[in-house]
């Protein structure tokens, strides 16, 4: 009965809001096959701080003193389409789009020579208030998808967001850093083995202030190896 109800609801929704490709407006799907083909992986490994190319995205020797992060893995190229997908997930709540690009994410992770099954994924947490506003944490959804590839453990409790702050969008690098300082804390009831490599997962890396703040919090607590992973680097 319930299934029937859903089917009727979807049928009515389709009539009122026919599903259209977010990129070319072709009716029938959120992302048509032709546009899905345009979702490409990121082909560059750079030091995330100075952006000099290297073999694996590790923070280079020169930038080590300025960063708590050991390196950054980037899944998708910074294209207009990929930006649009993430925007629609975050602000229009079309989380289904992440399912469409799941095979792309899988192949990127499988082709990434850095990837190890013993990495523990730590999604960037949302403040409880922001979580209630949005209803989901996109970093958690992304972590769950990535974790599926090699069965990585996901710890969505290790980091907590203890300070509510305004959106980072529209702020410059210095303002972003100030806005997010002391925002995170380690939850000592959900610790992970200190020898594990933690991978902080987020949707976008722009100036790196969120990622750096998370890495700083984890390193100050005693974790030794902290990498980042994002879908795109702005
Ligand atoms: Zn399309
Ligand atoms: Zn560097």
UniProtKB/TrEMBL annotation:
Record Gene3D superfamilies:
3.40.50.2020
The Double zinc ribbon domain sits at 12-64
Which InterPro entries does this chain map to? Answer: ComF/GntX_DNA_util-trans, DZR_2, PRTase-like, PRTase_dom
CDD domains membership: PRTases_typeI (cd06223)
**SUPFAM superfamilies from the entry?**
PRTase-like
Similarity section: Belongs to the ComF/GntX family.
List the protein's name. Answer: Double zinc ribbon domain-containing protein
User: Which species is this record about?
Assistant: Candidatus Buchananbacteria bacterium CG10_big_fil_rev_8_21_14_0_10_33_19
């Amino acid at each position: 009965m319930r299934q029937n109800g859903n089917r009727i609801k979807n049928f009515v929704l389709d009539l009122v809001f026919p599903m259209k490709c977010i990129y070319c407006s072709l009716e029938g799907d959120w992302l048509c096959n032709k546009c899905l083909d345009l979702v490409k992986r990121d082909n560059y490994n750079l030091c995330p701080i100075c952006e000099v190319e290297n073999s694996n995205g590790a923070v280079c020797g020169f930038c080590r003193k300025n960063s708590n992060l050991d390196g950054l893995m980037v899944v998708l190229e910074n294209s207009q389409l990929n930006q649009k997908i993430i925007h629609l997930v975050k602000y229009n709540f079309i989380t289904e789009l992440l399912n469409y690009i799941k095979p792309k994410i899988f192949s990127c992770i499988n082709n990434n020579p850095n990837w190890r099954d013993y990495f523990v994924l730590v999604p960037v947490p949302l403040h409880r208030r922001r979580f209630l506003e949005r209803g989901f944490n996109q970093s958690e959804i992304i972590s769950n998808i990535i974790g599926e590839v090699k069965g990585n453990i996901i710890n969505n409790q290790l980091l907590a967001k203890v300070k509510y702050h305004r959106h980072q969008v529209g702020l410059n690098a210095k303002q972003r850093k100030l806005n997010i300082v002391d925002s995170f804390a380690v939850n000592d009831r959900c610790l992970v083995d200190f020898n594990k490599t933690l991978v902080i997962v987020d949707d976008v890396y722009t100036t790196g202030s969120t990622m750096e703040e998370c890495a700083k919090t984890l390193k100050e607590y005693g974790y030794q190896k902290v990498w980042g992973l994002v879908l795109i680097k702005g």
